[in-house]
Amino acid sequence: MLRALLLFFLAALALGADFRLYLKDGSHHMVREYQVQGDRVRYYSLERSEWEEIPLELLDLNRTEKERKARAEEVRAVAASDAEEEAAVRAMRREAASVPEPPGLYWVNGKQLVAIKQAESKLVSSKKQTMLRIITPVPIVPGKSTLELPGLAAAVNVGRDRPEFYIRLIEPERFALVRLERKKDSRIVQKWTVVPVSKELFTEHAEVEIFRQQAGPDLYKIWPQSPLEPGEYAVIEYTEGKGNTQIWDFSYNPDSKASAKQ
To answer: In the chain, what are the domains?
Structure first.
């Protein structure tokens, strides 16, 4: 009710603001208000700061009122958009205040925040690359490994193609939403390559574009920019080249109800 009254008040202000009083020849006067008095129109001229009169037959009042109403509607639309944005910000602040203090990932499941357990990963070396390094006298073959999670599905199924999460960072590092690649009995999170001699580490992952809003120190709300395809996903926190990836995994299976079996 209060919001409706505010929007009405803003629209009324827009109608009462300075505007163009159009003549039929296309010219106009900038006026604050006007009054139709029989065959004449009395208006307050902003240019001369005084009341003046003009024959009604010279004016295009239809164009004048159409423009005034369009301006009032524009003001109302902007005010409504601002009000919705402010309401969304207030709602996010209330929601963010309920995020637990421990670092981690929290899934917004309706009105509940569900803590997603940090996954235990393993680094699997490429047997082929290992053999090549053994038989090559000079260390020119890079070491290749995959960072994997056991099992073919996460314990959490979000049930929606645009799930929302809060991540409270462990350290001020990078974070990303990534799609996992299924193997025979595991899921690949990242592919690691160690360059010979320099021992530099390069990581690759299938990153999903996300929106992010900072909700506090080291706290962010994140969600996908586009609907997710069914499959396995994870939110990761990492430092480029450090090999310190932290993982929180989840599934998106639209054929199953959202669940969190942890």
So the answer is: 2-94 (2.30.30.100), 104-260 (no CATH)
